[in-house]
Design brief:
The structure is a single chain. By secondary structure, the chain is an alpha+beta fold. The protein has one domain: q2cbj1_9rhob like domain (Jelly Rolls), CATH 2.60.120. The chain contains three helices and ten strands, in the order βαββαβββββββα. The strands form two sheets. A seven-stranded antiparallel β-sheet has the order 1-8-5-10-4-3-2. β6 and β7 form a beta hairpin. The longest helix is centred in the last third of the chain and has 19 residues. The chain is globular. The chain binds fe (ii) ion. Fe (ii) ion (FE2) binds next to loops.
Length: 193
């Protein structure tokens, strides 16, 4: 099932500040032109984190704790930078990465509603409608399943350069287990009656 969850103050403050320093000092490259169509023509700059680096380990731990999920396979983590874009919304899913979930953490940039991310749903006629509008706020993490259609909202006005961390991974949702357990218990209860 498609989900979007938000968690404020994702990193402890001292770690958040350290990572921001790193984010502002690394080099970024534009995404490869051949994969741009896979992301609804959305365009950004990235810096790939080395696998198993300290920041990644910290994120795996926090994502599991805060979003009640077991990470079964980590795909990759990226520092991302998006500029003030004049073009319109570029809604897309992250399905091309092959992950089940994405955790996007806002790190540095102007805190404003339009600097954030929009999430869309399909209407009865198959058109996309903006249904969740998440503002850009430092240290805010958004966790969503890879089939959720989304895109930066910087095109909507007052956007500026923003830095985030994008994490792609395969995970097992523990809340599903709890629901399944509840269902089993209630079935079991009925049987006993
Ligand atoms: Fe995306």
């Amino acid at each position: 099932m498609s989900k979007v969850w938000i968690e404020e103050n994702f990193f402890p403050l001292d770690i958040y500040r350290e990572i921001v320093q790193q984010i502002l000092s690394v080099e970024y490259v534009p995404i490869l032109p051949e994969i741009v169509p896979d992301y609804g023509k959305a365009y950004w700059f990235t810096s790939l984190l080395p696998d198993d680096c300290d920041v990644q380990k910290q994120m795996v731990k926090l994502i599991q704790e805060k979003f009640n999920i077991i990470v079964s396979e980590w795909c990759h983590s990226l520092y991302t930078m998006i500029g003030k874009t004049a073009h319109g919304p570029r809604p897309h899913t992250d399905a091309a990465v092959g992950a089940t979930h994405n955790c996007l953490i806002y790190m540095h940039g102007e805190e404003s509603t339009n600097n954030g991310t929009g999430f869309y749903h399909k209407t009865g006629t198959g058109e996309l409608e903006l249904s969740i509008h998440v503002g850009f706020k430092h240290n805010r993490a958004i966790f969503f399943s890879s089939d959720v259609i989304h895109g930066p909202l910087t095109w909507a006005g007052n956007g500026s350069f923003r830095y985030s961390i994008a994490n792609f991974f395969k995970g097992h949702d523990l809340s599903k287990d709890l629901k399944a357990q509840d269902a089993k218990l209630s079935v079991g209860g009925n049987e006993a009656e």
